[in-house]
Each structure stands twice: as C-alpha cells, then as structure tokens.
Design goal:
Blueprint (H helix, E strand, L loop, with lengths): L14 H10 L12 H10 L6 E10 L3 E10 L3 E12 L2 E13 L1
Antiparallel strand pairs: 1-2, 2-3, 3-4
C-alpha cells in the first residue's frame, strides 16, 4: 500500500517495499519472502508445509493510476488460484480493487 506514482518494475521488491509489505501483514503469523517459490509450493503439496499458504506476484504493468499484476496463491495442499489483480492509486495509496481477465481455481 505505497503512496505516490508507480515506479519501474525491476523484478524484485526493494528492502523498503518488503518492510512496508511486512508491516501491513504484521497481524498474520510467519509471513516471509522466498527466493524460490516453486520449492515452497512442492512442500505445501507434499506435506512438510501442509496448511501453509503461498502468494506469488508477477510483472507489474500499467501507469500512475492503475496497474495489473498477475498473481497466484496456494492454500494448504487443497487449492490454488490464478488471476490478474487490478491495483489502483487512490487517496491513501495503492489498493487492490479487483481482478481482470480469466481466473482459475483448482
């Protein structure tokens, strides 16, 4: 939930962005960033992390008012979702306002 204009996407979150995201999610247990999400995904479905969740985001495309970012989530070993989030810059910062395009649920 940053404020200001969109910045160029460099492929990873900066330390400041990571800190801001973690601060917003401070009420959730054990939130962390991982370098290789496919390893975590396998561990969620194969047992040692059963019950864990994983949210991955893709390239951010758009402008200073609206961006789209691909996302996928894994919820325990029971389900997965794929979608493109719509994020808008409004008073108070950037907020996810919905999705666009196809959505898949497994």
């Amino acid at each position: 939930m940053g404020t200001g204009p969109a910045a160029a996407c460099v492929g990873t979150f900066s330390e400041a962005e990571r800190a801001a995201i973690l601060a917003e999610l401070a009420d959730l247990p054990d939130v962390r960033f991982v370098a290789r999400p496919e390893r975590i995904q396998r561990r969620i479905f194969r047992g040692p992390l059963s019950g864990a969740g994983l949210l991955s985001v893709g390239v951010i495309e758009g402008n200073d008012e609206r961006v789209e970012v691909g996302g996928r989530s894994y919820c325990g070993g029971l389900c997965a979702h794929w979608m493109t989030f719509v994020v808008r810059n409004a008073s108070g910062g950037w907020h996810v306002t919905g999705t666009t395009g196809p959505i898949a649920i497994s």
